[in-house]
Structure formats: structure tokens, C-alpha cells
Amino acid sequence: MASKERIQRLKDETRINILDAALRIGKECGWQALSMRKIADIIEYTAPIIYEYFENKEAILRELTKKGYLILTKDMQAARDSNVLPEKQLEAMWLTYWNFAFAEKELYQLMFGVEVNCCVFDSDFPEAEAPATMISEVIEALMDTKNPSEDLICKTYYTFWSVVHGLISINLV
User: Fold this and answer.
1) Which stretches of the chain drop beneath a pLDDT of 70?
2) Which CATH superfamily is domain 58-173 in?
3) I need a labelling partner for 146 at 20 to 30 A (CA). Which of 37, 44, 58, 128 fits?
């Protein structure tokens, strides 16, 4: 049993090393420079080994995108939870979003397709929905009308998001 656990631990470590190497390449050279061969060189494995962990480069990018959304969501939850008033929650979450974009520039670019071909996501990508859901819930709490329509909440969210994301995108390029 200990042998199986050790083998699984080594596989998990290799998978993490692959993702770390890919992120390093993205940060140092840009996402367009990412290749299986470059990842293999960094982790000192052959390129075919990487295919045992990830089907292709897009699968690695998708995994890194998920990682970005998980980090952003965790940070936004902390920002929301550190405030009681919905106005302050909303402000704190947008500031956290803004700060994330510049602290994790390469992940943000990957997540939102800034100077990068955005990964194509299917509907089974809840990590990407979490930040919008959190902000939408606070927007709903701030609205004067009782039971505002989903359409109104959605339009308000996308109005805020388009301004913030637009300003971030201008500053990232």
C-alpha cells in the first residue's frame, strides 16, 4: 500500500511541476511561447511524459485557467467576508479583482483572453462562474426593488464588469 501511495504522490508532484513550469513559461516568455517541449526541458522529462498527464497544451492552459479562477474566487470571498455592508463588499470585491489582474497578470490574460487566444469552455466550468455569481449576489442585495429581475442584475453586473475589465485590459497591453 505504501508503494501505491508513493507512486500516486510522485504522479501528483509531476503534474504540479508541469503546471508550475507552464506558468513560469507564460510569465517569462508569454503564452504564445508555451510548448510541451519547453515544459519538458524545465521539468527534465521527455515531452511524451507530459502527454500522460495532459492531453495537449490546451488542457494545460485550461487547468491553469481554473487555477486562476480559484485564486480569484478565494480572494474575492475574503474581500466580501471582511465587510458587512453590501456597498463595501462590492467595492472590496472589485478592488480585489483589479489587484488580482495586475498581481497575476499572466493568469488574468489567460482567463480572459487578453492578448491570448482564450480557452474555449463548455458549460461545465463552475470556477469561471463563481466571481460573477458573488458580485451578482451583492448587486441584488443593493438594489432598491424587491426581487429584481435576473436580467436587471445581469445587466448591472456586466456594466460594472465591462468598465473594470476594459480598464484592466488597456493597462495590461
Assistant:
1) 1, 114-124
2) Tetracycline Repressor, domain 2 (1.10.357.10)
3) 128
